[in-house]
Amino acid sequence: MRPICQNCSRTWTWWDVAKNSFNIRKYIVCPCCQVKQYPTSGTIKFDFVMCYAIFFVFLTMVIRLDSLIPPITVLVILFGCYQMVYPFFHRLSNTKEGLF
Questions:
Q1: Tens digit of pLDDT for each residue in 60-84?
Q2: C or N terminus of the chain, fewer CB within 10 Å?
Q3: What are residue 39's phi and psi, to 5 degrees?
Q4: Is the pTM for the entire model greater than 0.70?
Q5: Alpha-carbon separation of residue 69 from 11, 52, 59, 79 (angstroms)
């Protein structure tokens, strides 16, 4: 299920969420009503866990293998998979939520 704007109830497209995932701001603007939407605490926790899991797999492979090519290949594949499923786990809120 893709995220829904809490102001206008518009379901965001996969592309809208994917292109905004590279945004360094702490909010994204709804393309329909132009209201700031913030990620929920669950979304922030999911991002944290996934990024560290990918980093842990990469670091473990670098330590165990002599070559950097397999770990970098796995890193690119895992990051690509994460970017493809990220829009389906992203949830939005009208207010900025704390992490806990």
A1: 988 888 888 888 999 999 989 988 8
A2: C
A3: -70, 145
A4: yes
A5: 40, 20, 13, 15
